[in-house]
Amino acid sequence: MANEQYILENLSTAVLLFDNQLHLKQINPAGEVLLAVSTKQAVGADVRDLIAADDEFITTLQNALDAEQPRTERELRLQLAHMHTIVVDCTITPLRDDQQTAELLVELYQRNRQLRIAREEQLLAQYNTSRTLLRGIAHEINNPLGGLRGAAQLLEQELDDEALREYTNVIIGEADRLQNLLRRMLGPNTLPHKKNINIHEVLERVFTLAQAESPEGIKIVRNYDPSIPELYADPEQLIQAVLNIVRNAMQALDGNGIITLRTRTQRQFTIGNQRHKLVARIDIIDNGPGIPPDLRDKLFYPMVTGRADGTGLGLSIAQSLVNQHGGLIECKSQAGETVFTLLLPLETVKS
Question: pTM (2 decimals)?
Answer without folding.
Answer: 0.59
